[in-house]
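Journal club side-thread
Mid-discussion, someone asked how the predicted structure for our own chain would compare to the paper's figures. Pasting it here so we can look after the session.
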Amino acid sequence: MHICVLGQGYVGLPLAVRAAEVGHTVTGYEPDRARCEALAAGSSYVEDIGDDRLQAVLGSDTYYATSDPQDLKGFDVAVITVPTPLTDRAPDLSCVRDAGRVLAGWIEPGATVVLESTTHPGTTRDVLIPLLEEGSGLVAGRDFHVGFSPERIDPGNPTWKLENTPKVVAGLTEACLARVKAFYDSVVDVTVPASGLEEAELAKVFENTFRHVNIALVNELAKLGHLLNIDVGDALDCAATKPFGFMRFTPGPGVGGHCLPIDPVYLSHHVRRRLGETFRFVELAQEVNERQPFYVVDRLQAALNKRSKCLTGARILALGLAYKPGTSDVRESPARHVIDALTARGAHCTIVDPHVGADTGLPVISRLETAQLAAADAVVVLTDHPEFDPQLVHAHASYVLDTRRAIPPGDHIEHL
């Protein structure tokens, strides 16, 4: 089939490459021309897709990257994988709307359109479908098929990839569902049909809301454990030995990435707008996790005070800028908020991250050296990249605030 994937980011590019690898002819639509040029040259900017995989599908003429909407003509299946950010703390569906308008003029009878972008329930039915019908002059569910299949990409995960992660699929009608399922059956191992569009949309935002709420719970537990002089890490280790009824979450400096800081807001905002109700668990979790980077700074300041040092003018070595280990992804990273707050209080921060380049606007060093550790008044571990040697940090740092519990215990080591 001719497959068009709108958006060639961390969700769209893996889908496009995978579809090309299994034999579809794939058009990767990306409005950013610089990205298109990189893809055409066989250079991937998405860590989960190596240059070799990209070059293989380019060489077999099964994948083509373009910023020209006319290349969408004649598609059998089009998948929208565009960002759904927040603007002024409210859901911003402008990219979904733009993609729908671009796509609508190229819909032919029998074609299938699928939305993968994470969003609140009702988006596919109430936002996307009217745009597609208006621009095409066709009727969804009668003349063409529409579905929703939430992305479940976990950047940098070596175990769970696109193809082996179960894929939830939904359709406007039973015939729509059949078409959507048939496409995804060709690219992933397992598909899971949902009873409707809204159920699939809700499943996605709830998956991340579940994590968001439980991270907030364990972050609060860590604060209380510190005040009570209880080793929360050991308590969590003990609790995690229970083989049923418990799932471990670990304290950290906050939440990052596209999903956790954003998806729960889509759900709570939708509930408030449609029902006039507050989703209290979600909003409380948001408050706790947004405060967490400032709690890290408060802990660091208190630790320096105990050592007769002032945060203002202190030399702070920050280990990690990405929001998760092993990746260069800095979207909504709590590490950035910690560093900004430290700088605002007069600290001098040196950032070490082997995965993140200079395009973040911050001076980032790629390699951790012994001299850096020894010279710092305090080291704060914000991302537990595997490249950071815990024993090296333990041996040469005078004081460490470890927000990821990656450094072995010691008199000069504090865990969050």
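Post-session note: The longest strand covers residues 2-6.
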